[in-house]
Design brief:
This protein has 121 residues and is of the alpha+beta class. It has a single domain, classed as RNA-binding S4 domain (Structural Genomics Hypothetical 15.5 Kd Protein In mrcA-pckA Intergenic Region, Chain A), CATH 3.10.290. 40% of the residues lie in helices and 21% in strands. The chain is built from 5 helices and 6 strands; from the N terminus they run βααββββαβαα. The strands form 2 sheets. The chain has a 4-stranded antiparallel beta sheet with strand order 2-4-5-6. Helix 1 packs across helix 2. The longest helix is centred in the C-terminal third of the chain and has 16 residues, at 84-99. The radius of gyration is 20 Å and the shape is elongated. The termini are far apart. The mean pLDDT is 91.
Length: 121
């Protein structure tokens, strides 16, 4: 196998749970191949460099293998190689998220009143 559709490859490499989610990510620009936004029908080849944004994580990977079938996790990880800089950056961001205070809380009664008054101006 020389090349595979990128939406199939992303699904087979377990970056996305379904091909339709992979397609949506491609169409919204969350996946780039050498700095370009590919269509879901783009034929990915060995050696292509992908930048994949999944949630808060950003993966920089180099394609090492081809598969159009979903494989087990250890076999799927053999399809690509993540760059060292990407791995270190993801770990650093993970530590920062753990240390950062939780600012996503619901406002209390006083804060709700203040918001309501502010919006009514």
């Amino acid at each position: 196998m020389e090349s595979v559709r990128i939406d199939k490859w992303l699904w087979a490499a377990r970056f996305y749970k379904t091909r339709s989610i992979a397609k949506e990510s491609l169409m919204s620009g969350k996946v780039k191949v050498s700095g370009h936004n590919p269509k879901p029908s783009y034929q990915v080849k060995v050696g292509d460099q992908l930048r994949i944004r999944r949630g808060n994580d950003l993966f920089h990977v180099v394609v090492k293998g081809m598969s159009d079938k979903r494989l087990s996790a250890p076999l799927a990880q053999a399809l690509y190689e993540e760059t060292e800089e990407s791995r270190l950056a993801r770990e650093r961001q993970k530590e920062e998220r753990l240390v950062a205070p939780d600012t996503q809380h619901r406002p209390d009664k006083k804060q709700r009143r203040q918001l309501r008054d502010f919006k009514s101006l």
